[in-house]
UniProtKB/TrEMBL annotation:
The keyword DNA repair does not apply. It is an enzyme of class 3 (hydrolase). One of its GO terms (cellular component) is plasma membrane. This is Signal peptidase I. Keywords: Hydrolase, Protease. Belongs to the peptidase S26 family. It comes from Virgibacillus indicus. GO terms for molecular function: serine-type endopeptidase activity; signal peptidase activity. Residues 12-176 form the Peptidase S26 domain. The lineage of its organism: Bacteria, Bacillati, Bacillota, Bacilli, Bacillales. PANTHER family: CHLOROPLAST PROCESSING PEPTIDASE, SIGNAL PEPTIDASE I. Its EC number is 3.4.21.89. The active site is at 42, 83. It comes from the Bacteria. Transmembrane segments: none annotated.
Length: 186
């Protein structure tokens, strides 16, 4: 009998350990980190279709998004998008002849320099007033996002400003494919 009770106790200990591990994994995935796969060409050349990344869901509980952060947000109930934060609250944003202007000052976008026009085939001029919502400046609790591949990206130019409530988190770690392993923008 003692051997049978010891076996039950051992199974119970294993079951508790597995339940704890699954619970911990669930909490980490739900509130701190989650994987995401890049779908499409909108962030080329920075991110490639099929890149697998980690989303930090905790980062924006501590601080607000900053210009050029790469974020994941809920574009719809079924689809999350990955884009780059270009404008933050209180700013006026416009692009003229593919030059970004924040509050009237030209801002360099170093992540676009390696493109050499490859992904920038069309001039995508816009100003904040011409976007959905017609704002004169980005209101509190919102950001303006653009894809790095401006000529092939569904972003704030079509979707409008992104509410902080829509943001899942910040992403900067590509972990797969292994030959693309890197931390972006750090």
């Amino acid at each position: 009998m003692a051997k049978k009770e010891k076996g039950k106790s051992e199974w119970f200990d294993w079951a508790k350990a597995l339940l704890f591990a699954f619970g911990l994994a669930f909490i980490v995935r739900m509130f701190f980190f989650a994987p995401i796969v890049v779908d499409g060409p909108s962030m080329l050349p920075t991110l490639h279709d099929g890149d697998q990344m980690i989303v930090n869901k905790f980062s924006y509980r501590i601080h607000e998004p900053e210009r050029f952060d790469i974020i994941v947000f809920h574009a719809s109930a079924q689809k999350d998008f990955i884009k780059r934060v270009i404008g933050v609250p209180g700013e006026h944003v416009e692009v003229v002849d593919n030059v970004l202007y924040i509050d009237g000052e030209a801002v360099e976008e170093p992540f676009l320099e390696e493109k050499n026009g490859l992904y920038q085939t069309a001039v995508n001029d816009f100003s904040l007033e011409t976007l959905p919502g017609g704002y004169e400046e980005i209101p509190e609790g919102h950001v303006l996002v653009l894809g790095d591949n401006r000529s092939n990206s569904t972003d704030s130019r079509m979707l409008g400003l992104i509410s902080m409530d829509q943001i899942v988190g910040k992403t900067s770690l590509i972990y797969w494919p292994f030959n693309r392993l890197q931390i972006l923008g750090e």
